[in-house]
Amino acid sequence: IAPPAFLADPAPAAVLATLPGARAVGGAVRDALACRPVADVDVAAPFPPGEIAARLTAAGLRVHETGLSHGTVTAVLHGQPVEVTSLRRDLVTDGRHALVEWTTDWREDAARRDFTINALSLSAEGDLWDYFGGLADLEAGRVRFVGDPATRLVEDHLRALRYFRFQARYGRGEPDPAAVAAVRDAVGHLSRLSVERVWMEIKRLLAAPEPSGAVALMQETGVLPAILGPDSLGAAKHLRALAEIGAPADPMLRFDALLTHGTAEAARRLKASNEEVQRLVARYRAGHDILPIQPEIAAGGPDDDALRRLLADQPAERLLDAAWLRQGVNRAWGWQGPDDAAWERFRARIAAMPVPVFPLQGRDAIALGVKPGPEMGRLLAETRRWWLEGGCTADAEACRSRLAELMRDIHGKM
Ligand code: ATP
Ligand code: MG
């Protein structure tokens, strides 16, 4: 084959030139052969980790030894990292941890990789090694385990989830029956995986261009209910609808579509970051605001004042999420709602609307003679309510007069 372009990138080229017999492995080789953008380049070399580090350092490369105990070092050149791993062979695996031994046998290293399309290796000269038929599988859109699927899943249950990640990205046509049967049988073991790893895999899967087919297969095999519970029944239907309406390929928006309710709780259970959980909570709130105004959206509304009120209470991004989701769910189940053009117009207006910011702060109230404390909080909140009702159009001056008026009212009554 013609040597793929990534072999000429300075960092991989320097690493391959420094380590005799080293080859690029894994995702970079697979993606280059599939004519897809290559993300990071992994290299494997027939030396023990210490020797790899020593040779790279001697050649003047910056080396991080963070993964040295697992046989991996990271070489960095011009800011581009390359992970370099010793060839290895699995001795014992218990589904969560593996005991490995260094080897110089490329076939053994390929045999411990998960799928045939991930077991390819490529020399600096562009020679390809394909011990398990990965190239043909890549061309046919087949995701196949290296070796016996059931055995490979017992060694590492995470591979059941990785299967769907690669199926989503590379799978075409009928999925490999042996893989599907083995994954189905492994469902009972998924609860033993750490939730952090499950969350990472779900997000990677949902980053694929169109993951609805793989998610349908996850439902059909029982994998999705096993990790997300019974509310995931509409997941694939929802994702397909999101794809049809042209929603962004955003893993978090898609995750939100996997469950009919309780996505924030599910994300929290999977130890998603606070930021991610908060995003789902805010989307849920925005969804509540959008649900009742669908007739207005269908008619080209709501008017600017009402739209500003919505935007004053929550980030525009969450309203957009909620609009995509509502449009997608309506479509998935054939529910009445605004047509696609009306949703499009609604989102365009949200995106174009400057975010209204309440113009007063505590110091404005103090300048008007209000004492800091609960009364100040109440006066500001009351003024903000008035500002919202007026469509967020009152400026600082008008808000100050309103606050002064409210003050006079209170003190007049006393
Ligand atoms: P991506 O583009 O999604 O990063 P990748 O192929 O680089 O895809 P990684 O998870 O980064 O995937 O793993 C790199 C390589 O390491 C894989 O291609 C595969 O050969 C091997 N590998 C990773 N995880 C496993 C696993 N759990 N079991 C067997 N081999 C694995
Ligand atoms: Mg990778």
Automatic annotation (TrEMBL):
Residues 23-144 form the Poly A polymerase head domain. InterPro entries: Bact_CCA-adding_enz_type3_sf, NT_sf, PolA_pol_head_dom, PolyA_RNA-bd. It comes from the Bacteria. Its cofactor is Mg(2+). Keywords: Magnesium, Metal-binding, Nucleotide-binding, Nucleotidyltransferase, RNA-binding, Transferase, tRNA processing. Pfam families: PolyA_pol, PolyA_pol_RNAbd. Belongs to the tRNA nucleotidyltransferase/poly(A) polymerase family. This is CCA tRNA nucleotidyltransferase. It comes from Pararoseomonas baculiformis. The lineage of its organism: Bacteria, Pseudomonadati, Pseudomonadota, Alphaproteobacteria, Acetobacterales.
